[in-house]
Amino acid sequence: MAEDKAHDEALLIDFLLGQCDEAQGRLVQGRIERDAAFARTLEDLRNTLAALDLAVEHEPPETLVADVLARVRSARQTDALLAREQLSRRDVIRPTFSLREFGAIAGVLLLLVSIFGVSYREARRRKDLTHCAAQVARMGSALLTYANRHDGHLPTATASGPRWLPTASQPAASNSTALFRLVKAGYVEPPAFQCPAVGGSSFVVQAGMTDFPRPESISYSYQHSLGPKGLWIEDRRLLGVKMSMVILADSTPVFAGGRFRADRVRTPVSDNHGRMGQNVLYLDMHVDFKRLPSVGVMGDNIYLAGDIQDYHGEEAPTSLTDTFLLPAFSEDDRAGDSRAPPMPDQQP
Prior knowledge:
Structural class: mainly alpha
Radius of gyration: 31 Å
Largest sheet: 4 strands, antiparallel
């Protein structure tokens, strides 16, 4: 009796896994129609195997399921070979997986997939955060080098006017031309400006370029710097706030895609790391990861100008210590000779 049940379970498992030949398939279909107990066993096995479908939600390593199932098949094939060698012995029962054993295998597989899926995602997130922080620190070093060679002034954006968001009739100045000065002077390489959690496309600096060639080339936002001179880091009024004044961070969500996003004003957290927070660079050039945007001087929101809630593209910092990070890239202020030919997507 037990041997017949084990044989039925093995036959049904082969049927569900698509390993039955045509004759065996017809046999199973016939027994399902006339044997209620056999049909119930099939349904139990189908429900057990259905648990494996839950693994898709956990994003495991691509080969995990295939590897485990391959080991299961290998074990069954080995058992089949041993059984064929001992067919002449009546006291030998062909080894097979019982319903309970196969259910245990499915449960263990699901547990492994869950653990590895969560661990893999978390490890990738931490790696991206660490890599991003290292790049922000690299930009901080480049900004300090630039300031030391320019009488203490951080780089500024060359602009003919105060507008940094375009309208239908008015172009916009690009705040990122300030950061591009670091690239043009050789203080930092272009790939450093693509957040590893976002990716992007790098480029080769060519003669005549004044800015990053594409939105994908820069995924960080810099302090509003439209004007004749950049922020003077030796200003005595800044000495006591260097550790709390932010000058650069992961890209602003308030002006994502080069337009004002009113729905983001109340909860502005960068999109770079899945809205989990942002790496920020302070005026003393140290880097920290912050989950909230109100991390500037006296709790200043780094993505807003003071308490302004509505933007038209000409707003500026409301005080010397007010951090106001502008869009990483503005499409409209591009000269034809400042563009570079596209390169394949890459991460540094």
